Amino acid sequence: MASFTTLSQSPPKLLFRQLFEKESSTYTYLLADCSHPDKPALLIDPVDRTVDRDLNLVKELGLKLIYAMNTHVHADHVTGTGLIKGKVPGVKSVISKASGSKADVFVEAGDKISFGDLFLEVRATPGHTMGCVTYVTGAGPDQPQPRMAFTGDALLIRGCGRTDFQGGSSQQLYKSVHSQIFTLPKETLQYPAHDYKGFSVTTVGEEMLYNPRLTKDEETFKNIMENLNLAYPKMIDVAVPANMVCGLQDLEPKAD
Ligand SMILES: N[C@@H](CCC(=O)N[C@@H](CSS)C(=O)NCC(=O)O)C(=O)O
């Protein structure tokens, strides 16, 4: 007798929220696999000041936060990853090995961060800092389409991260954006860690056409980056040391 099995597997469903912290103009991203019974979730680039807002949203949506991740060691705000770990037991902090920062999980190019049946792929995009990475949603029929790239400060919308401190290099940034971001499918949605002009999202194809810095040749790009004349971020002296230890510098027990 023939037996018939119905395999009715529905594709994983991505829950996605873009959150904004207005003092540093930072975007935090919440992603979760909602078709998984646990609804495993992760946060990319959380800010200390908005941790309670973000965790409340996670709770309201019934998600299980498993990762608090950074694209790099931020210089303009304190990361929320350390606070989150203190408030939600079991959450693991994630950052690149190349950042030299403390965390539970260290990633490098080619690594995958799984949440339920979804995953993020790690691409090394140094130049703004040595340890910058871009997290890209997985390729494949059971992953969200179009793909999404969380570029941190490597590539902004019609701009890019500055390269004048923290081991930055315009040469590295030019190379990494062209080889690791501009090689993604043109319809890939690109989400940066900051925006100062009111934009929220772009696509790889759009930036390849209209980014006023990265569409230039390498020599012109170097010249642009050397002449940005930006003031140092107001919080740099507090933020960098704190972010090297997951944002928890002031909470470490002090020696007598
Ligand atoms: N005014 C802000 C800092 C602004 C700034 O320098 N932004 C960085 C990313 S955060 S380190 C950047 O790379 N900007 C590039 C650009 O072209 O604007 C503050 O004081 O915090």
UniProtKB/TrEMBL annotation:
Domain of life: Eukaryota
Residue span, Metallo-beta-lactamase domain: 25-194
GO biological process, one term: glutathione metabolic process
Needed cofactors: Fe(2+)
Catalytic activity: S-sulfanylglutathione + O2 + H2O = sulfite + glutathione + 2 H(+)
Keywords: Acetylation, Dioxygenase, Iron, Metal-binding, Mitochondrion, Oxidoreductase, Transit peptide
Molecular-function GO term, any one: sulfur dioxygenase activity
Enzyme Commission designation: 1.13.11.18
CDD domains: POD-like_MBL-fold
UniProt cross-references to InterPro entries, sorted A to Z: Metallo-B-lactamas, Mito_Persulfide_Diox, POD-like_MBL-fold, RibonucZ/Hydroxyglut_hydro
Intracellular or extracellular location(s): Mitochondrion
Record flagged with keyword Metal-binding: yes
GO cellular component: mitochondrion
Annotated family: Belongs to the metallo-beta-lactamase superfamily. Glyoxalase II family.
Protein name: persulfide dioxygenase
Organism: Gossypium tomentosum
